Amino acid sequence: MNKKGFIFDLDGVIVDTAKYHFLAWQKLAKGLDIDFTEEENEQLKGVSRVRSLEKILAWGNKTISQELFNDLMGKKNEEYLNYIAEMDENEILPDVPRVLNTLKENKQPISLGSASKNARTILERVNLMSNFDAIVDGNDVTKAKPDPEVFLIAAKELNIKPEDCIVFEDSVAGVTAANTANMISIGIGSKDVLGHADYIFNDFTEISDDFIKSLIEN
Ligand code: B16
Ligand code: MG
């Protein structure tokens, strides 16, 4: 049987932690007198913690000391950790377990490819650790999405060529990273946001087992 590398982003693909990132950043931004829109928040999806704060400060035209910057990063993460501490299996997005099972039944290698430094904690909370042959996250990369580094490391760990990898992504930056890595990109979300993906679905309920099998075979 053909072997492809299936790489899953975490936030917004397996679980909806994007909403917790948004809440945590929004609280912090308010404290700095910065307001940002839902549309601007799209630009923070898949983007590293450092880069996210840089963007928020730029939107508010604020410059701060390195010390305060580090302090704010710590505060944001504390806030975010409070949210994820409450997570359990109920937060896994619909039909993600079915797709993971189909891949397992067809003996396909699976990796996580997330920008988050909290990825392992989240996978443990929702009890999905054992589904992954490799986990590549924000602790393993030096360059954040849209740089393809995270996905290229995942391909290497799975021992599959980049052009034989398929990436599930909800973010603009992540789809760009997958395309740059020469992988097939599957956007999970709206066509208006992820128009540059090879395929786009609103969520995993729209992804049939037959479609997964066609990805394996072609
Ligand atoms: P952390 P993903 C990304 O995860 C999030 O989409 C992004 O909003 C966040 O800033 C980034 O992880 C870093 O997360 O602060 O937990 O290290 O979508 O790549 O799984
Ligand atoms: Mg994401």
TrEMBL record:
GO function term, MF aspect, one: magnesium ion binding
Record-marked site positions (Important for catalytic activity and assists the phosphoryl transfer reaction to Asp8 by balancing charge and orienting the reacting groups): 114, 145
Cofactor note: Binds 2 magnesium ions per subunit.
Keywords: Magnesium, Metal-binding
Binding site for substrate: 9-11, 25, 44-49, 52, 76, 114-118, 145
Chain positions recorded as Mg(2+) binding sites: 9, 11, 169-170
Domain of life assignment: Bacteria
InterPro entries in the record: B-phosphoglucomutase_hydrolase, Beta-PGM, HAD-like_sf, HAD-like_SPP, HAD-SF_hydro_IA, HAD_sf, PGP-like_dom2
Family: Belongs to the HAD-like hydrolase superfamily. CbbY/CbbZ/Gph/YieH family.
Protein name (database record): Beta-phosphoglucomutase
Lineage: Bacteria, Pseudomonadati, Bacteroidota, Flavobacteriia, Flavobacteriales
